[in-house]
C-alpha cells in the first residue's frame, strides 16, 4: 500500500512517463515486403499525414496529408486519418480541428466544466450576496455575502455588492436603512407631504420577493391573488421563477399606495407568514420614521416662525 504522502509523486511520475512516451513515439515500423516476403523497416508518417502505401525493399513509405475534416496527432502508419471530433452540449470550439490535431472544446459563455467534462451553468449569487469572482469556462462563480454598508438586490452571476446610497445630499434624509438585499431609502423635505409610506415600500418590493425565496407554487398563488385583487384575470400557472418575478414587478410598478399596503395581508392569506411579518415590519418602520421626520420638520417651522415674530 502506498503511503498517502507518496501518492502525488507517483501520479506525477506516471503522467511524465506518458508525456515522454508520446514525445519519443517510434518513427519506424516493421513491415513484410509482399514481393520478397522479407521484413523491412519502414518510416512512419508525421502528424498530419497518413500512410498511403508502405515501404518495400526498394522504396520508402508514401505518406499523404490528411484531408479536411480529419487528423493524426502522432507519428503513424494508419491507412486513413481520424475523423475530427465535435463539441458536446453547451460547448463551443476553442481551437478548430487541423491536420495534426483534433478540435479543442470549451464550455460556452455562462457555463463551466465539471463532472467528466460536462458543462454546467454558472452559479447565480442570490439577493444579499455579490459576485466575488466571475465564472470562467473552467471555474464556477464565487459568491460572498454583502458586508455592512453594501447590498445586492438581484440574482446574478455578474454583479458585485454595491454601496448603500448615503442620503447626504442637501435636504435629503435617511428614511430606511439599507440591508444586504436592498438599498437605503432616502427622502427629502419636499416629498414628506406628497408621498405615502407605501410609496417608499414600493422601492424595495422587487428585491424583497427575490430575497425571500418563496416556494414557486406559493409564489404563483401570490401573483394570482395580486392580479385578482387588482381586477386582472391573467393566470400565473406554468410560469417559471424569472417570469413570476417579472410579472410581480410589473404589478408593483402600476400598484397604488393602498394596494401596496395590502401586500403583507395577502402574503399572510397565502401562507407566507414569515415574509408577511418581515414586510409589515419594513412598512411600520417607514411609517414611523416618516412621522418623526414630519414632526421634526414641523418643529423647525415653528421655531423659524417664532423667530420672525
TrEMBL record:
Subcellular location: Secreted
Superkingdom of this protein's organism: Eukaryota
TNFR-Cys domain segment(s): 65-105, 106-143
Signal sequence, renumbered to the chain: 1-16
UniProt repeat feature TNFR-Cys, residue ranges: 65-105, 106-143
Pfam family, one: Death_3
Cystines in this chain: 66-81, 84-97, 87-105, 125-143
GO biological process, one term: apoptotic process
Protein name: TNFR-Cys domain-containing protein
Amino acid at each position: 500500500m502506498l503511503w498517502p504522502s507518496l501518492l502525488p509523486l507517483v501520479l506525477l511520475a506516471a503522467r511524465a512517463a506518458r508525456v515522454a512516451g508520446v514525445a519519443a513515439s517510434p518513427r519506424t515500423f516493421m513491415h513484410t515486403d509482399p514481393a520478397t516476403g522479407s521484413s523491412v523497416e519502414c518510416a512512419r508518417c508525421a502528424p498530419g499525414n497518413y500512410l498511403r502505401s508502405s515501404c518495400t525493399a526498394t522504396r520508402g513509405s508514401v505518406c499523404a496529408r490528411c484531408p479536411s475534416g480529419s487528423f493524426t496527432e502522432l507519428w503513424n502508419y494508419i491507412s486513413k486519418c481520424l475523423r475530427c471530433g465535435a463539441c458536446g452540449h453547451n460547448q463551443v470550439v476553442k481551437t478548430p480541428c487541423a491536420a495534426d490535431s483534433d478540435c479543442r472544446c470549451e464550455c460556452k459563455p455562462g457555463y463551466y466544466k465539471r463532472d467528466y467534462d460536462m458543462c454546467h451553468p454558472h452559479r447565480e449569487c442570490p439577493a444579499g450576496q455579490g459576485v466575488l469572482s466571475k465564472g470562467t469556462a473552467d471555474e464556477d462563480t464565487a459568491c460572498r455575502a454583502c458586508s455592512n454598508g453594501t447590498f445586492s438586490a438581484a440574482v446574478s452571476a455578474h454583479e458585485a455588492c454595491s454601496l448603500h446610497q448615503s442620503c447626504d445630499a442637501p435636504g435629503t434624509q435617511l428614511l430606511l436603512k439599507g440591508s444586504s438585499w436592498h438599498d437605503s431609502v432616502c427622502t427629502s423635505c419636499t416629498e414628506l407631504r406628497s408621498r405615502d409610506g407605501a410609496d417608499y415600500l414600493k422601492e424595495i418590493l422587487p428585491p424583497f420577493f427575490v430575497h425571500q425565496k418563496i416556494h414557486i407554487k406559493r409564489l404563483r398563488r401570490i401573483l394570482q391573488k395580486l392580479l385578482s385583487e387588482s381586477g386582472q384575470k391573467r393566470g400565473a400557472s406554468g410560469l417559471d421563477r424569472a417570469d413570476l418575478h417579472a410579472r410581480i414587478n410589473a404589478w408593483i410598478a402600476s400598484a397604488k399606495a393602498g394596494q401596496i399596503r395590502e401586500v403583507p395581508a395577502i402574503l399572510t392569506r397565502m401562507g407566507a407568514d414569515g415574509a408577511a411579518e418581515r414586510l409589515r415590519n419594513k412598512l411600520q418602520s417607514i411609517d414611523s420614521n416618516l412621522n418623526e421626520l414630519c414632526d421634526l420638520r414641523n418643529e423647525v417651522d415653528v421655531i423659524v416662525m417664532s423667530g420672525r415674530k
